[in-house]
Amino acid sequence: MIVYKSQVFSYPDDFLAPDLVLLFIMAILEVLRLYLGSKGNLTEEEAPLGLSLVITVGSVILSVYFLVWQTYVLKADVIINAVLLFTYGLESVLKVIAIAAFVS
Questions:
Q1: How many other C-beta atoms lie within 10 A of the C-beta of residue 69?
Q2: Closest C-alpha to 61, from 32, 20, 25, 104
Q3: Most C-beta atoms within 10 A of its C-beta, which of 26, 30, 45, 50?
Q4: Chain segment 44-58, per-residue pLDDT in tens
Q5: pLDDT for 3-16, tens place per residue?
């Protein structure tokens, strides 16, 4: 989507690089978050799930950035980030339930 915006709109060069860096950071956090979440769930350990929950906070912050403060926010961005934030919330609730079940 950011490639589309940079080609169609006059994207300021000073803002393109930070948006791309934040997008790559979000991608790295997503891979790490999903890996730790699935590892914690499969091994029924609290630590990876808890760490995944902490990383989710960073992902939520980046998602809100892309929803509100990005240089160009399209309707597709709003829809995608709203679904993403809803998914993060649902996953967080399920992670807390899983951690509580693994502890007891």
A1: 10
A2: 25
A3: 26
A4: 999 999 999 999 999
A5: 898 889 888 888 98
Q: How many CB atoms are located within 10 Å of the residue 90 CB?
A: 10
In one-letter notation, the amino acid at residue 44 is E
Q: Give how far Cα 49 sits from Cα of 27, 60, 83, Å.
A: 19, 16, 22
Q: Return the DSSP state at 104.
A: -
User: What three-state secondary structure class fits 62?
Assistant: helix
pTM of the model: 0.91
- Which run of H or of E encompasses 51? helix 46-64
Q: Which tokens in the block code for residue 74?
A: 């399209």
* Burial (CB count <10 Å: 0-12, 13-18, 19+), residue 2: middle
Rounded to 5°, the CA angle 93-66-95 comes to 15
Euclidean distance between CA atoms 93 and 65, whole angstroms: 22
